[in-house]
TrEMBL record:
It comes from Streptomyces roseiscleroticus. This is Lipase. The keyword Membrane applies. Keywords: Hydrolase, Membrane, Transmembrane, Transmembrane helix. Residues 2-261 form the PET hydrolase/cutinase-like domain. The chain holds residues 55 to 318 of 318 of the full protein. Belongs to the AB hydrolase superfamily.
Length: 264
């Protein structure tokens, strides 16, 4: 319980709870204009309204090529309501490449912890990155350059760099079976396969899904993202039950690979 883990937030988890459209925390939001943002394009911060539970871990999320913050906005309240501060960002240009998106994710985290109005609510030692497509490729870049990150979740990621042995951040890679823009055979799967085998890592392939599955509310993405973030940003082992033993293929999951148990 909380006495053993100071980062644990919220009630004992259930499968229905991690699949729900909203978690236990009421959520507020505040926008960051592009003028106020340095090194990224601005965005929206979603955060638990109550200050009664102390600080929260935080996640920055980048959209993909040609896309705006709106394309990943559903993740803001969905994750924040589980007990995280979530920053969905715009990039400087919608044409920015993955390496740039990685730097922008880190700039957004720095803004969140150093300059944002909710900085006192954020635990600056417990940060994570996510992103769609080139933003997913960017989350790999961010984790490579900042190994203190606690979790990375690239969603149908795209990157020309196919090898990621440098990562030290627990990483959940989400691929889509019918992705023809970032086919899993040349993106998500080699990214996963080249992560260190000693790392806490997982590969979730969404059954019968396209490149754009992460752009609309998706319960499979949400439930495993919440579990991964809770497990590695909050060190909350109550969520290990949803990650180990490895989820079995079903109507939603084409394939799931990973090490198990975690943290060993
Ligand atoms: O961010 C993305 O959707 C990357 C896929 C893409 O359009 O790459 C083409 C260069
Ligand atoms: Zn590489």
């Amino acid at each position: 319980h909380a006495a053993d883990n100071p980062y644990e937030r919220g009630p004992a988890p259930t499968e229905a709870g991690i699949e729900a459209l909203r978690g236990p925390y009421a959520v507020s939001e505040t926008s960051v204009s592009s003028l106020a943002a340095s090194g990224f394009g601005g965005g929206t911060i979603y955060y638990p309204t109550s200050t009664a539970d102390g600080t929260f871990g935080a996640i920055a999320i980048s959209p993909g090529y040609t896309a705006r913050e709106s394309s990943i906005a559903w993740l803001g309240p969905r994750l924040a309501s589980q007990g995280f501060v979530v920053f969905t960002i715009d990039t400087n240009s919608v044409y920015d490449q993955p390496a740039s998106r990685g730097r922008q994710l880190l700039a957004a985290l720095d803004h969140l912890t150093e300059r944002s109005p909710v900085r006192s609510r954020v635990d600056s030692d417990r940060l994570a990155v996510m992103g769609h497509s080139m933003g997913g490729g960017g989350s790999l870049e961010a984790a490579k350059s900042r190994p203190s990150l606690k979790a990375a979740i690239p969603l149908t990621p795209w990157n020309l760099d196919k090898t990621w042995p440098e990562l030290r951040t627990p990483t959940l890679i989400v691929g889509a079976e019918r992705d023809s823009i970032a086919p899993v055979s040349s993106h998500a799967e080699p990214f996963y396969n080249t992560l260190p085998s000693s790392l806490d890592r997982a590969y979730l392939e969404l059954n019968n899904a396209t490149h754009f599955a992460p752009n609309v509310s998706n319960t499979t993405i949400a439930k495993y993202s919440v579990s991964w973030l809770k497990r590695f940003v909050d060190d909350d082992t109550r969520y290990e039950q949803f990650l180990c033993p490895l989820p079995r293929p079903d109507l939603d999951i084409e394939e799931y690979r990973g090490n198990c148990p975690h943290g060993s």
